[in-house]
Fold this protein.
Amino acid sequence: MTILVFALGLLIGSFLNVCISRIPKRESIVFPHSHCPGCGRNLKAAELVPVLSFLVQRGKCRGCGGKIAWRYPLVELLTGVIFIVLYTRYAGIDFLLYAIFFSLMVIVFFIDFDHQIIPNRLILILLSYVLVWQITRPVVPWGEALLGGILGGCVFLILALISKGGMGGGDIKLVAVLGLLFGWRYILILMFLSFILGGVTGALLLAAGIKKRKDGIPFGPFLVLASFIVSAWGENILFWYLRLSGW
């Protein structure tokens, strides 16, 4: 079953690549047919097999010989791994709910990474999905969810004001949506983890000379990573913290 879940993740990842490429351009994710971004040639079914097609073609388009970005197999493999981890943590409808949610979050991750923006329509889709999720199968009580959304949004709004735009509006909206899903306890853990991930990554990029102090680093990917960690191991982290603090 694990192999089937991984294969499903690969297939979904292939579709997510289309979304990542087209949403920032305001293009339809359904039409036209998948094509080479270099020469525009429509891709055949054999060229759309996740990961395998990339390896067989040695990362090049069969038509024009242009290079295929490594991001394509990376997104497919990453989605497959995400599905496997979620499958080990959740069963049935819960697995499906989290799998759909993190498929959307993969799109957020790479669009923000590439363009340093989280499109409003993606935020609206996430918000709608989370609200329906909370209404039909609550992850946390509504009181905790509302407090989590307010807490997350306010903290990031204050950070945006203090940093004078260092934190983007998309980040504020995203963390508010995450707060609605995870509640106030876990949004605190999520924000803490995102700051650690962002700080460590920023320090490494500065040390390697890849980024300068004034260069912006998209924060959305760290929120996505932190939300996945909380979804998979949040209870363990909270238990460890409470035990360590003597509560």
Remarks:
- Residues 169-207 form the longest helix (39 residues).
- The chain has a mean pLDDT of 89.
- Residues 137 and 146 are 15 Å apart (CA to CA).
- The chain is about 70% helix and 0% strand.
